[in-house]
What we know:
The complex is a heterodimer of chains A (288) and B (327).
Chain A: H1 2-32, H2 39-57, H3 60-81, H4 91-113, H5 124-127, E1 129-132, E2 135-138, H6 139-161, H7 163-173, H8 175-180, H9 185-211, H10 217-232, H11 237-258, H12 262-276
Antiparallel strand pairs in A: 1-2
Chain B: H1 2-19, H2 23-48, H3 56-73, H4 77-99, H5 104-124, H6 126-129, H7 156-179, H8 181-191, H9 193-198, H10 203-229, H11 239-252, H12 259-277, H13 281-295, H14 300-326
Helix pairs in contact in B: 2-7, 2-10, 2-11, 2-12, 3-4, 3-10, 4-10, 7-8, 8-10, 11-12, 12-13
Amino acid sequence: MNIIAEQILNALQMGVLLFLISSGLSLIFGLMHVVNLAHGALYMAGAYFALTAARLTDSFFLALVLAPLVTAVLGAILERLLLRRTYGQGMHPQVLLTFGLVFCFDELVRILWSSQIQIIELPPSLAGTLSIGDIQVPTYRAFVVVVGVFVVGALLLLFNRTHLGAQVRGSVDDREMAAALGIDVKLLFTFMFSLGAALAGLGGALAVPLFTAYPGMGSEILISALVVVVVGGMGSLVGSLLASLLVSFAIVFGQVVLAEFATAMIYVVLILFMLFRPQGLMGVARPT
Amino acid sequence: MNRYLFYIFALLVLALPHVTRGTQTEFAIELILTGIFALSLNILIGRLGLISFGHGMFLGVGAYLAAFQLRNMTDNLFLLLIAAVLVGALIALLVGALVLRLGGVGFVMITIAMCQLVYVLILSTQTLSGGINGLTSIPRPTFWKDAPSLLSLETGVTFFYVALACLVIFIWLLKRLDASEMGAVFEGIRQNPTRMLALGYPVRAFQLAGFVMAGSAAAVAGALHASLFGFVDPTVFFWTTSGEVILMVILGGATALYGPLVGAAIFLSLFHYLSGLTDHWRLVLGLVFVGVVLYAPRGLVPLLADARTRWLERRASVSKIQSGVKS
């Protein structure tokens, strides 16, 4: 019983991290039709910003707030300076541009933070274990799940209950019409890109105590995030959430059953989806 | 004029392995093999408009095939090349049938994921594939048993000519493709798949055909690459390897026949030169990538070709004015 509960918590915590990365990726795609291959790099940037912030302020909680903010600014700068210049040229320049950025970011991290693996000390309040009934769980994993629930709630509120969210949804459905109705689509693009960056940055910051920080961490997580986006259906927030959970449960319980082939599990999920539901869980079938 | 230049260039290339030595010859061979790899990807990018982020898969398939075949079965060169073409084509057929179900951006994502799947599978089959360490001491192939030492591929010179022959044959095939009806259909699909579908062409079947061609050519490059250096490791399957070859294609120019070849040469030279100079060569590489996308999106070869046409036109108009002044 205890083991199953622990595995469920592990899967939930992993699902939260995957959701933080893939939701941004999916929304950026849904609104801007950009596959942001540098999204993993933003996740990595978040991790390293958190590292530095934690060292400077001596507070992990403050680092968790600062890192996404700085990553959001970085995202906004990237969108304004570079990505904006490729709009209207089809998807190829954007894919290539963001891939070039992956190289730049990996190397910049090596220059600025060195290529050593780095860790964050957890504050005492998060370091121990927590007992729920007679089950012992690591406090930090539970904390990650709670943060995830809050973020999901906030995003759902933002997109379904606010004027801004309505503008975004409208622009996803029909960009030209939204622009014609007076919505500043360009500003929305910047907002969405930097929101996606903030989510990825938060994911990166939360991941450091679990997986440490190292250059190239973004390129690894990006693949899982892409799988989640395809499985969930591109451009759908709820799809991302469901797919994150599906993929993380497949990985965690795959580890119990299949041991070393567990990492291959997510690709099995992916291939099954491509065969039977290529538009993803919540995606709309589009003619290719 | 152009014809003579071509002959001089061909002679220079043929004489090259007699001037270079040791690692220089190996570098020249690597250039040729990487050129084949980049040219094969350009069947997808330049001719069909499909950005495959998993083309490293076929390079790796060829490389691992060479490792198994040369170490355990036969060291015959022709059998190796035939096996590489067939296995590359077969796997491209299976993978292509799956990944081409998603168009556009989905295609980018799914090709990354498929390549990564193979990477993970290699890592988890340690005993068979050598896992993260890869497979080493792959022997070089031979023309036939007890072939004369002049034809031995142990010397870089013969290996160079074998690789060059593969490249020349491949370019000839590409030219045939571009001049054929199929090439015209490919171009139509690149420009507007929906319209081609409406005209009654089975778009996905043509895309699959292109995918198979690209896969088998890349497998040949991979097989020769593995036997050249005598080892193979799973990094060929990591998605950034596939990204690098895309950079070569875009850098040289996807619309020009020789663009990917030039791109591969520039990329490899930059890589060799920069990695000797600085540990942070990837930063320079990344900046080159960003710069090309922003300032020369069509690649260097079309850029130079344009400059040359403009220069010729200007010279023509200048001489016209001059002759006008004289008369």
